[in-house]
Amino acid sequence: MPDRRDFIKKSAMSTTILGSSLILEACANPGSKEQALSTPEVSKPVVIATWNNIKANDAAWSVLENNGAALDAVEAGVKIPEGDPEDRSVGYGGRPDRDGKVTLDACIMNPEGDCGSVVFLEHIKHPISVARKVMEDTPHVMLAGEGALKFALESGFTKENLLTEASEKAWQEWLKTADYKPVINIENHDTIGMLALDDAGDIAGACTTSGAAYKMRGRVGDSPIIGAGLYVDNEVGGAAATGLGEKVIKVVGSYLVVELMRQGNAPADACRMAVERIKNKNPDYRDFQIGFVALNKKGEYGGFSLHKGFGYALHNSLEKKYFEAASLL
Ligand code: SD4
Predict the structure, then answer these.
(1) Which of 10, 81, 88, 261 is deepest in the core (most CB within 10 A)?
(2) What is the pTM assigned to this prediction?
(3) What is the set of domains in the chain, with CATH numbers?
(4) What is the pLDDT of residue 43?
């Protein structure tokens, strides 16, 4: 029988071991703090969105709390920033390309793994709804530019001017130097990627953006590329990206996050590993931002970014909150 002295010695030892392993884990895994934010006991429904998209989550939540489908929730959710002229990275009011034209990218995925996408779409306020129609009403996954616009108009969408006075003024100011650097200011963008798990346990996702400000005409980023800006596998979970799209495309970022979750990693850890992959492949990693959010089938969620300043909005039955994500730098 162990005596009391033995017991104290052993428990002191295990506390030390446990303590040091926790410290080691925290050092090796800066995302572990984020991981602790997962609330598996409140598994569903839940919605998570990149950046401080609380209002978008509210719209998604009103679908989810009425037993609505994840697909309807994410479409309703991302339409909020798409229609908001103050949001300079998405839809109406988005920053134009270097020629002063607002061009939009969006995609959507349903729990069956179907997807729809529009790229380089002009004049339509809600590209996400056009992407959904591409998914549901055409034999294709992706429509671009003029063809996407033609399809949108034939589907009943109306042609609008999406360049607001404020965005035009900022573009005119930019033209004075016309200096395009492939640098995304971390305070200055808020593309929305949204993932929802509904009451039936199904996951869907949506992503929509006006892309990098003052990009070359015709440039398409990661956001409408299935696997890059967004990926959903209803057996595992979903992920969405924001930041410099060129870097996300190179590692098929959102697909990578989902595959890392498939291997057993928690959402925040999977996001961190994908960010590390990008950092390791890009010597200029200090000059751009990347952020991922992820949600798994259990309703666990997380996010992670390259630089500080990225966060995500969460809404479940317990809380409605903005989280600052952990970052590598
Ligand atoms: C893009 N990923 O077009 C987008 C930009 C972005 O917030 O995330 N902006 O590269």
Answers:
(1) 81
(2) 0.88
(3) 42-327 (3.60.20.30)
(4) 83
